[in-house]
């Protein structure tokens, strides 16, 4: 029903209101000699009949897709028999169906995997003139919901059963590969939804895949280039003297338990900073990665101050250790390094930080 305007409000006199637009001439149909009845007033302002209001509303399609990742942070995409590019699982919301219910139904129909997806990552408005829509389709525009399918284990991935037609295969793609595999709008939407998941600040509102309120991860374009791989094994303690040290990095903690993260402005790639990136206290070598025939040492320390940004090519963010891992390609040993990071955080008497969107630090530096 339309929302009433101020002009629609009248006093309740017990009389039946006149039909919309009715305007009788004064005295019409009055009995001879009887005083003329006052003409019923026409509805003023913006009042409409329910039929008129319904006809005035925009018509849009509604869709629901699900973003799923594997343990290495790669995104599940599927091949279909009716178009060359890849898609996230999902499809159209049926008449009278809730979007979350449609997401669960579509994943079951397409992949044979049962589940519930109550958490939204993004809601996207796709305009009627979006590129790639055939003219004969009569595409009116769409509201598309992106739900969080979570991280699937190897067993869950192995349980996928494809239907006899439509879905011809699935694979997990590095986030930076999505623009080459998907329609441009679909890739923007998937990456925006993935950043929203990493941010942890709630569902993002998108317009044709672009956030209406970009976060630091959106502004810096993280995940648009391949995450730097480091798939070596994790070892606690200082690196042995006989191993060549390579790319030493620091888990440098702010007082709230978040850590310093560098983002290359040119590529959006995420890096741990060197141990000397700021003034620190309580530094301890707590482990190293063995890869490429060398040791990649890790140092944990409490940040006390950051100098002015020494390199404008990098943005400096504070992020949770989990967010740092999700923006990195660390292979199977990633969970071991993350566990060691939290052990070091506890040793430094720092709190466990809640997941909030990463914060970009000012170029002039800061003190704690």
Written overview of the protein:
The protein is globular. The N terminus is likely disordered. It starts with 49 loop residues before the first helix and ends with a strand. It has eight helices and 17 strands. The chain is of the alpha+beta class. Strands 3-1-5-4-7-8 form a six-stranded mixed sheet, with helices on both faces. Strands 9, 10, 13, 14 and 17 form a five-stranded mixed sheet that branches. Strands 12-11-15-16 form a four-stranded antiparallel sheet. Helix content is 19%, strand content 27%. The longest helix is centred in the middle third of the chain and has 16 residues.
Name the features.
single chain; 368 residues; alpha+beta; six-stranded mixed β-sheet; five-stranded mixed β-sheet; 27% strand
């Amino acid at each position: 029903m339309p929302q009433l305007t101020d002009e629609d409000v009248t006093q309740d006199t017990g009389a039946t209101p006149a039909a919309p637009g009715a305007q009788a001439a004064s005295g019409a149909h009055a009995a001879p000699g009887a005083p003329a009845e006052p003409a019923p007033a026409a509805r003023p302002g913006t009042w409409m009949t329910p039929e008129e209001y319904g006809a005035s509303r925009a018509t849009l399609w509604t869709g629901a897709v699900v973003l799923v990742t594997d343990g290495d942070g790669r995104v599940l995409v599927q091949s279909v028999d009716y178009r060359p590019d890849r898609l996230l699982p999902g499809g159209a919301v049926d008449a009278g169906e809730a979007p979350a219910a449609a997401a669960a139904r579509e994943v079951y129909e397409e992949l044979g995997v049962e589940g519930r997806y109550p958490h939204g990552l993004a809601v996207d408005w796709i305009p009627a003139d979006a590129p790639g829509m055939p003219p004969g389709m009569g595409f009116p525009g769409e509201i598309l919901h992106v739900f969080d399918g979570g991280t699937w284990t190897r067993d869950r991935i192995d349980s996928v059963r494809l239907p006899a037609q439509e879905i011809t295969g699935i694979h997990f793609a590095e986030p930076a590969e999505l623009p080459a595999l998907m329609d441009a709008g679909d890739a923007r939407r998937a990456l925006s939804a993935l950043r929203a998941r990493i941010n942890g600040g709630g569902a993002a509102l998108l317009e044709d895949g672009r956030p209406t309120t970009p976060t630091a991860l959106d502004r810096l374009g993280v995940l648009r280039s391949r995450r730097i791989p480091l798939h070596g094994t994790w070892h606690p303690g200082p690196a042995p003297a006989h191993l060549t040290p390579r790319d030493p990095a620091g888990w440098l903690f702010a007082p709230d338990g978040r850590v310093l993260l560098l983002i290359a402005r040119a590529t959006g790639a995420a890096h741990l900073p060197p141990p000397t990136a700021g003034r620190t206290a309580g530094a301890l070598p707590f482990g190293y990665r063995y890869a490429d025939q060398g040791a990649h040492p890790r140092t944990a320390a409490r940040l006390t101050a950051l100098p002015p940004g020494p390199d404008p090519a990098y943005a400096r963010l504070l992020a949770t250790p989990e967010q740092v891992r999700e923006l990195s390609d660390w292979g199977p040993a990633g969970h071991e390094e993350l566990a060691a990071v939290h052990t070091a955080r506890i040793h430094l008497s720092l709190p466990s930080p809640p997941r909030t969107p990463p914060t970009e630090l000012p170029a002039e530096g800061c003190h704690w």
